[in-house]
Amino acid sequence: MPDHLDEVHYDAVVVGTDLASSILAAALSKAGKKVLHLDENEYYGGDSASLALEEVVRWANDRQNTASTSGARDLSRYLRRQRRKFTSVSYAFPRYSHSLDSPGSSSPLVLPSELQRASRQYSISLSPTLLPSTGPLIDTLIKSGVSRYGGFRLLEGVSVYTGDGVIKRVPSSKEDVFKDKEMSLLDKRKLMKFLMFATGDFESKPEVQGNEDTPLLSFLQNTFSLSSDVSFAIAFAIAHCTSPQDATLPALQRMRHYLRSSGRYGNSPFLIGHYGGPGEIAQGFCRVTAVRGGTYILGRRFRSLKRNTTSEGAPAHGAFSIELEDIPDTLHADVLITTRDYLPPDMLDGADDNSPSNRSPAAGKKLLARGIAVIDHPIQYAAVIPPTPDADQSSPSSEESTKTPQPLDTTLVVFPPGCLGDTRPLFESSVTALITGEGAFSCPRGQYVVYLCATIPSASEETLPTLNPESLLKPYLDTLVALPRPDSSSSSAPSPPLFQMFYLQRLDEPAATTLTPTESSNPHPSIHVISPDPSFTSPLTETSDWAATEAERVFRNIMRPEGAGTELANEEDEPLDFWPPLEEEEGGSEDVEEW
Amino acid sequence: MADANDASGSADKHVQVKLVLLGEAAVGKSSVVMRFVNNEFQANKEPTIGAAFLTQKCRLEDRVLRYEIWDTAGQERFHSLAPMYYRNAQAAVVVYDVTKAASLEKAKSWVKELQRQANPNIVIALAGNKVDLVTPAPAAETSFAESEDEPDDATATPGEISASAGSHGPESLRQVPKDEAQAYATEAGLLFFETSAKTGEGVVEIFTEIAKKIPIEYILSSTRGAAGRNGAGGARGTAAGGDVNLDGAGKKAGDACNC
Ligand SMILES: Cc1cc2nc3c(=O)[nH]c(=O)nc-3n(C[C@H](O)[C@H](O)[C@H](O)COP(=O)(O)OP(=O)(O)OC[C@H]3O[C@@H](n4cnc5c(N)ncnc54)[C@H](O)[C@@H]3O)c2cc1C
Ligand SMILES: Nc1nc2c(ncn2[C@@H]2O[C@H](COP(=O)(O)OP(=O)(O)OP(=O)(O)O)[C@@H](O)[C@H]2O)c(=O)[nH]1
Ligand SMILES: [Mg+2]
């Protein structure tokens, strides 16, 4: 029996439950708007979802072009676009390869039964990100009250791969620099001088003037006389640059943000969300929306998404009408908020759209190569510093030699460009490996999820077919798992991953379907396009804050008292809070019942 | 927060327990919780929006349990309940309406869903609610309602239903026999009570029995200050030392802001 809705008219329909859309839905609900929130997927989170292992495999199968061409006609618009956004998707279960068909076979792989049983113990993120401990998302989490729905963990360490199987812990504070035993006193002094500079207001300093666009690497080496090793560590593991060409000013600003974030929750600028991070946080925002009366319908395809055209203004039943499979009622909304994944081509024209290709066409076309692997041993490396070195232990050498350091649960390893000796142009990107364990609630005890990511700048259409994410990233995974472990007993060959997947993700619409909005005319003032993928420099550290920034931008456009998109405008003249003050309403009683 | 109490030893263990509510619309999920938390009842309660996150402490022998009660907020209506809802839940109350047979079937499907999605150690209680509608009026006055200083609650809502029910005899409204539900609960390993949010019958009992069944020592030993979070696999926590509380208020925040 089909489900009926009590209500068919909504102030706003939000299509897509990615983090940015979910934040926006929650903000609109808290501002008193009646929200309908839809997602064609059966899971929350869209491109930032956290998925169980079984869902990951289904996700990959849906995005592989192995399905018969006759089936392509039946694909929804969303899925067709997903298939253009996520390409070269491949996955395998190397540990179980003997018991399965070869990965190249046409029939989609099934999970080995052992992994099938444990499927729900994995929360694998499609958008693995580090959350800076100060900034838009953390503010939004606290102000909206969503922080209490989720759990967070401090990133325990950042290391750089310096070549030849050597990995080095990157200091996360000035104290760490002082304690470093390998750096010369002179290098330490230079580094401290730079760190002082980078935490201050450098915009107007003579060092920066005229160097704004200089590559950060040369800036560090020329202006601060830092050694090449130290410069690489700073650029790729502290400022989170992805290319040797990344410009000085934005990199310095990022770095200052992270340096100042350190200390808020501990000795690291970054947090990682439990259960895969953004996908779980998105669910928290959706819960806020639901609590405020929002309606959720997931897993239904659109039968239609139309803008009603009547001659005089918005009709009584809303400007947009939506028909979903299995839902008999036609739903109406005054404002439509969506990602480009869902928007019919004829509606894109004139929408309020902040997508990368719109902001600056040249900045678009970024491509990420991503890899996900599940391994069942920690990545331990010789040069590891114990998680919490005793502050007043001035002679730690004796201690370190007597006890094996505890494996870190949640760490980041950065491979600077070219560090594996490959000099092909596509490899001119750093590769990050984010490792999360059971402490991040992302996998069963004793296992780790490794997320590899490389940003491929300005990939032209022609290189796409030859770009193989697996051959690009696999060497990094192999290097990582082959790192010498401190306990020499386990020097045997590393066991293959339980699961691995590689794919390409493009951060903007393919040229063929990108319609250029006409700036002058604005025929659809009440369509707002959320862009969950900024043309960011550091996908790892900037994506989550971007979601909050983008949500607030669209929120203000929708609520602004005059101009386009006035349907839901705030009546009052005073500036509107993105989040109203938290009320006690969700508090309830605190009485102790005695019995 | 568990960490605030670790130092005080076993005398006053204070354990946070996440409890989720499930059941068909209008069976009385929110009403049962309102009876438990505020000891009040509203005759014509709106479908739930708003208060969807309630906390209630309860003392059990030597320790205090702090229930963090999550109401569905309607997300379950189109089968769109987020996995986050089930995560770390140590207890669930699945509610049906004794006057609606279909609501028991729905409850059974929620139990299945919990067994599939939730922590394998979750304590599940089945509540056959609105039992006042099928009970002769005098019996509905339970000791719980009388002992409170708001007797109005039970009497101020005489209820058209009770009146009309009278003509047929209240038992005729019953669509789910108690022994049928009891048999199902036993088979599925659930706690079972018939309840009335209106009179209070069975409500406190259900939360007390859950409290007794929850492996508190296990929660305490496996969550070092991590607000009772327990992983999908159940046996989590050794690596939980690095968890942070974003609101930053640390230990003393626990009682003030329900975080
Ligand atoms: C196997 C295959 C068959 C195709 N057949 C057609 C076709 O018959 N007609 C056509 O216009 N384009 C067809 N295309 C082209 C292609 O799908 C669209 O140009 C492209 O998807 C536009 O996508 P969009 O997401 O921007 O817009 P969409 O919103 O996806 O579509 C734009 C317009 O093209 C139509 N369309 C899109 N994809 C198909 C499809 N697979 N079958 C039928 N209509 C489609 C839509 O109904 C709409 O009117 C086909 C592609 C493939 C792979
Ligand atoms: N007679 C009687 N009525 C009850 C009882 N419990 C709830 N009700 C009534 O049943 C209706 C629905 O109760 P709610 O508590 O809102 O039910 P719910 O399950 O939370 O409903 P949703 O939030 O819509 O899913 C309200 O009118 C209540 O007053 C009960 O024990 N006895
Ligand atoms: Mg309710």
CATH superfamily of chain B: P-loop containing nucleotide triphosphate hydrolases
What do we call the CATH topology of chain B?
Answer: Rossmann fold
* CATH class assignment of the domain at 9-82 and 275-359 and 508-584 in chain A: Alpha Beta
What radius of gyration of chain A results from the CA coordinates?
A: 25 Å
The SS-based structural class of chain B is: alpha/beta
What is the overall pLDDT average of chain B? Answer: 73
End-to-end separation of chain B in angstroms reads 8 Å
CATH architectural category of chain B? 3-Layer(aba) Sandwich
Q: What is the averaged pLDDT score of chain A? A: 80
Point out poorly predicted stretches of chain A. 101-106, 356-364, 382-402, 509-523, 585-595
Largest sheet of chain B: 6 strands, mixed
GO molecular function, one term (chain B): GTPase activity
Organism (chain B): Botryobasidium botryosum (strain FD-172 SS1)
Region (Disordered) (chain B): 140-177
Keywords (chain B): Nucleotide-binding
Structure, explained:
The complex is a heterodimer of chains A (595) and B (259). Chain A has 17 helices and 22 strands. By secondary structure, chain A is an alpha/beta fold. In chain A, strands 1, 2, 11, 12, 13, 14, 15 and 21 form an 8-stranded mixed beta sheet that branches. In chain A, strands 4-20-16-19-18-17-8-9 form an 8-stranded mixed beta sheet, sandwiched between helices. In chain A, strands 6-10-7 form a 3-stranded antiparallel beta sheet. Chain A starts with 8 loop residues before the first strand and ends with a strand. Chain B is of the alpha/beta class. Chain B has one domain: Rossmann fold. Chain B contains 11 helices and 7 strands. At the A-B interface, helix 6, strand 7, helix 12, strand 11 and strand 22 of A face strand 2, helix 2 and strand 7 of B. Strand 7 (152-154) of chain A pairs antiparallel with strand 7 of chain B, so a sheet runs across the interface. Flavin-adenine dinucleotide (FAD) is lined by residues 69, 72-73, 77, 80-81, 344-345, 513 of chain A.
